[in-house]
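lol forgot to send this yesterday, sorry. struct tokens for the thing we talked abt
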């Protein structure tokens, strides 16, 4: 009798076990999908030979604050952030900073300035001393192109 009762119970729990197994499998699949969707976005290709460069300011320059920095770009066009157009991007100015990962959106802070309006120059206040400046072009998602279009990282001294 006891054996029969156990058998009955186990045949009742069996469909539940199957459902549990399916739910577990679904959760694993969902979390795998979630992990996948957190991977870097597909990078926007840059135009071959595209170049980003500073205008009117060069490596080793001694300057006074505020510093006017002009952004040069050849081989690609400037478009405001959020506008998805082939072979375009918007400028970013890295101040005393370097990008750790070119596959992620560029952070937005004092060291990573975005020019999402399509601006091609800025006047920045810099404290006296040595600083580095670098331009990075990025796409509508603020992610640098592949391969990245970056300027030379210049060193300037503010008097
Ligand atoms: Cu940006």
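and heres what i got for the seq, position by position
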């Amino acid at each position: 009798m006891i054996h029969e009762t156990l058998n009955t119970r186990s045949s009742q729990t069996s469909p539940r076990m199957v459902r549990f197994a399916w739910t577990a499998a679904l959760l694993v699949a969902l979390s795998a999908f979630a992990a996948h969707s957190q991977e870097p976005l597909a990078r926007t290709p840059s135009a071959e030979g595209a170049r980003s460069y500073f205008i009117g300011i060069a490596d080793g320059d001694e300057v006074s604050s505020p510093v006017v920095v002009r952004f040069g770009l050849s081989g690609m066009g400037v478009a405001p952030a959020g506008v998805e157009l082939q072979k375009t991007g918007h400028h970013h100015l890295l101040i005393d900073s370097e990008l750790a990962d070119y596959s992620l959106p560029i952070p937005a802070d004092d060291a990573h300035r975005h020019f999402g309006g399509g601006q091609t120059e800025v006047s920045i206040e810099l404290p006296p001393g040595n600083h580095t400046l670098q331009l990075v072009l990025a796409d509508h998602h603020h992610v640098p192109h592949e391969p990245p279009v970056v300027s030379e990282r210049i060193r300037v001294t503010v008097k």
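Residues 81, 90, 92, 106, 114, 116, 138, 142 surround copper (II) ion (CB under 6 Å). anyway ping me if u want another try
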